Amino acid sequence: MRVMGLDFGSKTVGVAISDPLRITAQPMEIVRRKSENKLRQTLARLEELIEEYQVTQLVLGLPKNMNNTLGERAEKSLEFKEMLERRTGLPVVMWDERLTTVEANRAMIEGGVRREDRSKHVDALAAVLILQGYLDSISAPEAAELR
């Protein structure tokens, strides 16, 4: 009954996972690839995590422009969504991820994380912010009526 959050980047995918009650999000790992279009190993690793943690739903960040339009990165995220749905058979919810990387960096700065260490963790923390935003939205009172 867990949900997995994903921050899809050009060479990385930040991964976060919910607790079984779908209340909190925790960082899992960052899946790295050598080239933007080399997704086979990335998808295989995500499938392993989905099976290991019994994930039933995915939340994928949608990097909209600040004016709410979709740019090239958003289009690539939508293509990745289709790949995930085909490979896993799980529903994929797109979640507005504007400023999550900025917020992740700010949190690490406030936490005293050194600059050179931030890049090692920013994608996983962004995935946590994406997933936590989604989890918070489904736990709201009006969302409870929809379940």
Write the layout of secondary structure elements.
Layout: E1 2-8, E2 12-18, E3 25-32, H1 40-52, E4 55-62, H2 72-88, E5 92-96, H3 100-110, H4 115-139, H5 141-144
Parallel strand pairs: 1-4, 4-5
Antiparallel strand pairs: 1-2, 2-3
- Subunit arrangement of the protein: single chain
**How large is the radius of gyration?**
15 Å
CATH superfamily: YqgF/RNase H-like domain
The CATH architecture comes to 2-Layer Sandwich
Regarding CATH, which class?
Alpha Beta
The gross shape turns out to be globular
Strand arrangement, major sheet: 3-2-1-4-5
CATH topology: Nucleotidyltransferase, domain 5
Which residue ranges are poorly predicted, with pLDDT under 50 across at least 5 consecutive positions? none
Q: What percentage of the residues does DSSP assign to strands (E)?
A: 15-25%
Report the strand count. 5
- What is the overall number of helices? 5
Mean pLDDT: 87
Measured as a percent range, the helix fraction is 40-55%
Domain tally: 1
Helix/strand/pairing category = alpha/beta
CA-CA gap between termini = 14 Å
